[in-house]
Amino acid sequence: MENKDLELQIPNHVAIILDGNGRWAQKKRMPRNYGHIQGSKTVEKICEEAHRIGIKYLTVYAFSTENWRRPQEEVDAIMKLLRNYMKDCVKTSSKNNMRVRILGDTSELSEDIQESIVTLEKASKNNTGLNFQVALNYGSRNEIIRAVKELSKDVKENKITLDQIDETIFEQYLDTKGIPDPDLLIRTSGEQRLSNYLLWQLAYTEFYFTDVLWPDFNKKELIKAIEFYNGRTRKFGKIL
After folding, report:
1. How many structural domains comprise the chain?
2. SS3 for 104?
3. Within a domain: 150
């Protein structure tokens, strides 16, 4: 899609690893939890900017399967923040015509958060604006193992044969079923690794790493990432 104002080719799907909330807070001599609060506000702003410039799908890494290893106080604070965010997001998604889907193994989350997820996805499923995916208690290896188990079960029950299994069939068992693969991955805070994020889906994605900490990420930084994307020559993508 061409954006006339920016004269840039806008990626259809952008995935982001939100990194640096804790370090941002520490630099300001504030508790790490303060960084997560500010980071959640940045998510809302970037959702608005992404939709405004023509991005159709935005997927963010909010909480990984490995994040449970963090100090209990920090985990509890993040869960509290998620509870509030889920409730507010029902109103926000309706106001902004945004469809929200949760990726990950939600069965390990508390019952009230699971209920909020069901409510949010149901309330926003018919919205036609930005498709916003939140990876919550998500790990790509976990996702693939869960997919293999479900696929194996269907083979065992004769719902599908071994000969029918290909990439297209396998993708139907992933959390991202029906969602196109990302064109661009952004990771903030200077780290340059995938951290078990969308390993299958990122096979042909362009990677952009920035030293900017997530709470400081804004429209200007998003445009920088898209400019980088425009400078790449993609054999399997939209850029020729």
Report:
1. 1
2. coil
3. no
- Whether 67 is a known active-site residue: answer yes
Whose tokens are 């920090």? That residue is 74
Query: Could you tell me if residue 81 is left (phi over 0), alpha (psi between -120 and 50 degrees) or otherwise beta?
Result: alpha
Task: Write down the catalytic residue from 12, 19, 175, 181.
Answer: 19
- Say if residue 223's pLDDT is above 90: yes
**Percentage of the residues of the chain whose pLDDT score is greater than 70:** 94
From 5, 21, 67, 97, active-site residue: 67
CATH number at residue 129: 3.40.1180.10
Predicted TM-score of the model (pTM): 0.92
Tell me if 153 sits within 8 A of 174, measured CB to CB. Answer: no
* Structural domain of 191: 2-139+181-230
Tell me whether residue 152 is in a domain.
no
The pLDDT confidence band at residue 88, using thresholds 50, 70 and 90, is: confident
In a domain, 144, yes or no: no
